[in-house]
Amino acid sequence: MRNLKSLARKNRPSFAHLMVLIIGLLMTGWVVGCTQGEEEPQADPQTDPEESDTAEDPPLEVITSISILADLVENVAGDRVSVDYLVPLGEEPEEYEPTPSDFQKLSEADLFFINGYHLETWLDQVSQNISEGRIVATAEGGPTIPLEGSNIPDPHLWLDPLLVKNYYVEAITEALIELDPEGKEVYQERAEAFKEALVELDAWIETKLSEVEDPHRVVITSENCFKYFGDAYDFYVEGIWEINAPEEGTPQQIAKIIDLVNDKDVPAVFVESTINPQYMEQVSEETGTTIGGQVYSDDLGPEGSGACTYIDMMKTNTRVFADALSP
Length: 327
Prior knowledge:
Layout: H1 2-11, H2 15-38, H3 49-56, E1 60-64, H4 67-77, E2 81-85, H5 100-108, E3 111-114, H6 123-126, E4 135-137, H7 161-179, H8 184-209, E5 218-223, H9 227-233, E6 236-241, H10 251-264, E7 268-272, H11 278-287, E8 290-295, H12 310-325
Parallel strand pairs: 1-2, 1-3, 3-4, 5-6, 7-8
């Protein structure tokens, strides 16, 4: 045992040898460290570099005038854009007054999608807050039905899904590609998928409304805004007043609808989510006709309403009409 200890002490490195060894190791580490610092940084093997770059790029900032257009844009763009809308749910777009925050949103927006055909009567107030060429009228170019007694187009083209398919989706897709060419394939693929869904929606509406017999194919609302819906699905439509009428809910206008309901023996009338129901309640009281339910014409519904997307909104409206007007 003593010999082993002696041997160990004999072979133990001296303090000087240890210092040389330590300095050598430190120098080796420093050289390796410098060499690694000069090399290009290595990507995390579990991370796709292209995905990292994409994730760091902020989405395009898009503003729309109404909630319905916001949903259409999201269907085409997906997460390549961040979408917000100006007119709050429950408010009429024609009578909206822009707020200071709206001006700020528009000044920062890459695109501003409007409906056009004079729906946004307040457009001149905000147009100077977004650069030229960034305002896109999604409906204009589509076939129009004039307001009663004038040659001014009714702007509610979105109430026909095939007009949405042929005009709105096309205008949105074209504008997004022009602004963001790198997303062209994404936009085109999503647009085609959405168009297929709109064709299916149109067929579903047609089938659902086949339950309503001819004498009862009448839709009466406060504002006469379902013209395109009626034209697409063979319904007679009427309202107490026309869009942007100088007067709304006058005794003469209400009397006209009361006569119509009585003459046609209309089973039900309807109220809109953005309009005070008091006018239609008066019609209902004086004719004995029931209010068939609430429909959405100018906006989507809130969460839980069954109408918080465009397709759901159209299905909700169709169910309300079919249930109230069917025998």
